[in-house]
Amino acid sequence: MSTSPYAGKLLPKEMLVDVTLLTAAYYDKKPDPGIAEQRVSFGTSGHRGSSFKTSFNENHVLAITQAICDYRAQAGITGPLYVGIDTHALSEPAQISAVEVFAANGVDIFLASGGEFTPTPAISHAILTYNKGRTTGLADGVVITPSHNPPDNGGYKYNPTNGGPADSDVTNWMQARANELLENNLRDVKRMEYRVAIKAPSTHYHDYVSHYVRDLINVVDMSAIRDAGVRLGVDPLGGAGLRYWSAIADFYKIDLHLINQIIDPTFEFMTADWDGKIRMDPSSSYTMQGLLAKRNDYQVAFACDADHDRHGIVTPSVGLLPPNHYLSVAIQYLFSNRPQWSATTAIGKTAVSSSMIDRVAEKLGRRLHEVPVGFKWFAPGLFDGSLGFGGEESAGASFLRVDGRVWTTDKDGLIPALLAGEIVAKTGRDPGEHYKALADEFGYAAESRVEAPANTAQKKALSKLSPDQITSTELAGEKIESIITNAPGNNAAIGGIKVSSKSGWFAARPSGTEDIYKIYAESFKGKEHLQQLIAEAQLIVDKAIS
């Protein structure tokens, strides 16, 4: 895919989203459930879309909220429901719509005190904190966010009583129910006026900031960061964690500098991503230009996306660490510096994450739990403590408290960022230097992700491939050692195929929204071998699905 001339640059004002028109479209445009693109569709992180495209509008939110109420009733969930929103323009009107339905259904909800924005991990943390020691009257939650998606997007996701992303059996039920409500012109949606709903006896408020911030000492060694005087920089990227970072700096008395304190739903302060679109993606060097320019001002710096469930780490030694590099460093550090964690606690990774993690796990003597893409697969293990760490190649991670109990079961961008500060404080080296040490020991990994064309039939064929449909015996000059379509950790389908040799691997998965499939690849023999591996991967996949 070609890189936009706007990549890494601020966009001219005429290219920014018109928030007034976007909000008007949220209320004015009515989705047609007969059009596939306008139906409710829960992906790996809830329903997302744009009001301009009639894929995220008031009727969607009303229908999804009623579906959540109906699901809670049939599942016997009777505790409070925690509600959070991020800083996207559509999040506030969507919250208003949701409150109108929750109140009419008599659901006890907790909104953020003072109208604060709320990161995804703060919702997960609140659910788990409330449910601790309870067996009945359990809480759940929702976060209104499209994560790192462009400013014209809105999103809505549900977290059940385990605090993590909802599993597909739950989201499929909600999706079907919400679309049924759309088809019936919202006839069965209960709703009351917002001015009444906001004062209903079932509408409450919660100080998410204080509860989350004051508990951080139990998951990251904040005292070590303070005592070592580590100079930290953070760019919240205009996201929901802005007040959290200032509260963290004040409460723990650490040397943390907020580089950008702007909240603006156009996100005009963000440099554009590779395709010229604004995304709050902390793993993209194009969007992280502002922080990269200050890399030498801090011992370590970091950023999070709009709902603060992803992290990006910037160091003086290497600049922006690729997500796989930092996941490897964090795992190596945590499992060497958390003596209270059980000896049986495992390491969680997705099938398309770096094999460096496999090598680190083997050295540590820890079981590796490899699962398909989607953080929901880590939630049960993080919940019961059998997983010490769960991480995705897309810069999402969470890990246990110091004592080995659950912290969050959804992605948490703040704690991996703060952990980078702990690593510097305890070792005197930044995470970039730590990864170099790993690479010196285990080999230097070259990685890439590319896209290849595929029509609907070919994508369907790819999602249902079996290992015996791959007839090749070699991959980039090496014998193929394994071909899998199900993740070793839980035997769940990965939605594609992964082929591995001694020095490299590739995985291919169909896109859910475009006529393409994605190839993830990694080589421990250098960039030339990586390119050969990718070229052969496409030939292997094209042959199998043609």
From TrEMBL:
Top EC class for this record: isomerase
Q: Which cofactor does it need?
A: Mg(2+)
What PROSITE patterns is this protein classified in? PGM_PMM (PS00710)
InterPro entries for this protein: A-D-PHexomutase_a/b/a-I, A-D-PHexomutase_a/b/a-I/II/III, A-D-PHexomutase_a/b/a-II, A-D-PHexomutase_a/b/a-III, A-D-PHexomutase_C_sf, A-D-PHexomutase_CS, PGM_a-D-Glc-sp
What keywords would UniProt list here?
Answer: Isomerase, Magnesium, Metal-binding, Phosphoprotein
SUPFAM superfamilies (UniProt xref): Phosphoglucomutase, C-terminal domain (SSF55957), Phosphoglucomutase, first 3 domains (SSF53738)
Q: Which residues form the Alpha-D-phosphohexomutase alpha/beta/alpha domain?
A: 40-181, 211-316, 323-441
UniProt xrefs under Pfam families: PGM_PMM_I, PGM_PMM_II, PGM_PMM_III
- Its Enzyme Commission number(s) read 5.4.2.2
Similarity annotation? Belongs to the phosphohexose mutase family.
Put simply, this protein is called Phosphoglucomutase
Organism this protein belongs to:
Cellvibrio zantedeschiae
Organism lineage reads as: Bacteria, Pseudomonadati, Pseudomonadota, Gammaproteobacteria, Cellvibrionales
